[in-house]
Write a structure and sequence with these properties.
The protein is α+β, with helices and mostly antiparallel strands. It contains 2 helices and 2 strands; from the N terminus they run αββα. The chain has 2 domains: 32 residues; 41 residues. The protein has a two-stranded antiparallel ribbon. The longest helix has 28 residues.
Length: 77
């Protein structure tokens, strides 16, 4: 890989992280209960908290799968 390809990859990854951060910020502002759905596990013992967002992970996985499949089909016209 040459440096131009690496630079393009880093720029695309940066835009992806920016979009993901914006989406998470928007979800928080809209009051969507990601991380607090039924099926999301939270264990609190003293000063220790462990969160396992199972239901939120499944929903995000389904949405990302649909979105990426639509994007792949659109790009392969």
């Amino acid at each position: 890989m040459d440096t131009q390809q690496i630079a393009k990859f880093i720029m695309v990854a940066g835009v992806g992280v920016f979009v993901l951060g914006g989406a998470l910020w928007l979800f928080g502002r809209l009051g969507l209960p990601l991380g607090r759905l039924p099926g999301d596990f939270r264990l609190q013992v003293g000063g220790f908290t462990c969160v396992f967002p199972l239901a939120s992970s499944i929903i995000l996985s389904i949405l990302l799968t649909i979105g990426l499949n639509l994007l792949a089909r659109w790009l392969n016209k």
